[in-house]
UniProtKB/TrEMBL annotation:
InterPro entries linked to this entry: Aldolase_TIM (IPR013785), GH (IPR017853), Glyco_hydro_27 (IPR002241), Glyco_hydro_27/36_CS (IPR000111), Glyco_hydro_b (IPR013780), Melibiase/NAGA_C (IPR035373)
CDD domains noted in UniProt: GH27 (cd14792)
Molecular-function GO term, any one: alpha-galactosidase activity
Keywords: Disulfide bond, Glycoprotein, Glycosidase, Hydrolase, Lipid metabolism, Lysosome, Signal
PANTHER family, alphabetized: ALPHA-GALACTOSIDASE A (PTHR11452:SF14), ALPHA-GALACTOSIDASE/ALPHA-N-ACETYLGALACTOSAMINIDASE (PTHR11452)
Protein name: Alpha-galactosidase
Compartments in which it is found: Lysosome
Reaction equations catalysed: a globoside Gb3Cer + H2O = a beta-D-galactosyl-(1->4)-beta-D-glucosyl-(1<->1)-ceramide + D-galactose; a globoside Gb3Cer (d18:1(4E)) + H2O = a beta-D-Gal-(1->4)-beta-D-Glc-(1<->1)-Cer(d18:1(4E)) + D-galactose; Hydrolysis of terminal, non-reducing alpha-D-galactose residues in alpha-D-galactosides, including galactose oligosaccharides, galactomannans and galactolipids
Signal peptide: 1-20
Family: Belongs to the glycosyl hydrolase 27 family.
Alpha galactosidase A C-terminal domain ranges (all copies): 313-397
Length: 414
């Protein structure tokens, strides 16, 4: 349910975010590639050497990221998810990469990724085991901090929360904050708010002080129903989660699944547009070595990425649901506004939406310049508060606009 009416939206959006984890990272939402949704826990390198979780996979992704314009578009982190370690710690109790699949070890992989001008992300779990049953870090926080991740020159840690001991939550926050002492800044991508929700509302102030981004809701799947469920959850919890987002710390609605099998092109555009509005980390999980040109173009669309990375750093929100449309709006720097109109009616053809019905349209007073970014780039010219402009939106597709006031609106500005 889109509970936020425009006034509430204003209140939420003008509230400054709480203090962020002070490691100087994620001043804009993180961009990169993460293996999980597409490659999952495929460890069978004998049968499937091209797609198994091995150093080769990350090296190939790093190569493609440089060669095929991903790095240039801003995608920077190459991230390992679950299933990379050996089932046994080494003699000193340290986590170690599976020797068969990572013969060079993580340090060498990090060096390789760094030599390409990219960064390496790794995965661990704050509990006894990872979600897929590999060794967890419970009881080893300090050791992991000193040795494994810092010594290997890893740049990001996705810290999952399966099998977590809730009594240790505070200790966990202390541990993460103290990582600065190693002298190496690691970007923290945390997952425990997701596991906390069924018991209690997470303390977002503490989370923001501990993590650079955090998951709140279930894993994304390669399907439109999964994307819809993430949007619904976000809209119905936005008054709680949106104020906590800002430079240094972001809500993470999970990976982009664009370029895989389950979404139509309109649905891929919806995911990209809404992830930009939500100031979400853009962590792509697909096979960059084999992706259709249209999906690649969408993921590398500089206008959408600019909305996602806007320096104002405010997360947008759902401002109205009406007539099987959802309007999501995000305030941008220079008093601009991004408006995404999602057509949730999954029957029939394209439907028209009177753009002046978007609550944020108020900023178009006395005049504004409108640019359509999706589905096609189009200058829509100078408009007024009473415009009759109607945008066309495909079923389960999104029309994305930016609105630039031509002079200051006298009233409240998002
Ligand atoms: C959980 C996380 C996923 C992924 C898997 C790995 O389900 O939410 O993103 O990391 O664990 O096992």
């Amino acid at each position: 349910m889109c509970r936020a009416v425009f006034l509430l939206a204003l209140t939420v959006l003008v509230c400054p975010a709480a203090e962020a984890l002070d490691n100087g990272l994620a001043l804009k939402p993180t961009m990169g590639w993460l293996h999980w949704e597409r490659f999952m826990c495929n460890t069978d390198c004998d049968k499937d050497p091209n797609n198994c979780i091995s150093e080769r996979l990350y090296m190939q992704m790093a190569d493609v990221m440089v060669k095929e314009g991903w790095k240039e578009a801003g995608y920077e982190y190459v991230c390992i998810d679950d299933c990379w370690p050996s089932h046994q710690r080494d003699a000193k109790g340290r986590l170690q990469a599976d020797p068969k699949r990572f013969p060079g070890g993580i340090k060498k992989l990090a060096d390789y990724v760094h030599s390409k001008g990219l960064k390496l992300g790794i995965y661990a779990d704050v509990g006894k085991n990872t979600c897929a049953g590999y060794p967890g870090s419970l009881g080893y926080y300090e050791r992991e901090r000193r040795s494994a991740f810092a010594d290997w020159d890893v740049d990001l840690l996705k810290f999952d929360g399966c099998y977590m001991d809730w009594k240790l939550l505070e200790k966990l926050h202390e541990h993460v904050k103290s990582t600065k002492q190693t002298g190496r800044s690691i970007l923290y991508s945390c997952e425990w708010p997701l596991y906390e929700w069924p018991y209690k509302q997470p303390d977002y102030k503490a989370i923001r002080e501990t993590c650079n981004h955090w998951r709140n809701f279930a894993d994304v799947y390669d399907s439109w129903s999964s994307i819809k469920s993430i949007l619904d959850w976000t809209a119905s919890h936005q008054d709680i989660i949106v104020p906590s987002a800002g430079p240094g710390g972001w809500n993470d609605p999970d990976m982009l699944v664009i370029g895989n099998f389950g979404l139509s092109h309109d649905q891929q555009e919806s995911q990209m547009a809404l992830w930009a509005i939500m100031a979400a980390p853009l962590l792509v999980s697909n096979d960059l070595r084999d992706i259709c040109p249209r999906s690649k173009k969408l993921l590398q669309n500089t206008d959408i990425i600019a909305i996602n990375q806007d320096p104002l750093g405010k997360q947008g929100l759902c401002t109205i649901k009406m007539d099987s449309f959802e309007v999501w709006e995000r305030p941008l720097s220079k008093k601009r506004l991004a408006i995404a109109v999602l057509n949730t009616q999954e029957i029939g053809g394209p439907r028209g939406f009177f753009i002046r019905a978007a609550p944020g349209w108020k900023i178009c007073d006395p005049q504004c310049n409108v640019t359509q970014i999706l589905p096609q780039y189009k200058e829509l010219g100078v408009q007024t508060p009473h415009t009759k402009l109607v945008v066309s939106v495909n079923p389960s597709g999104t029309t994305l606009l930016t609105v630039t006031p031509t002079s200051d609106y006298a009233g409240l500005i998002l």
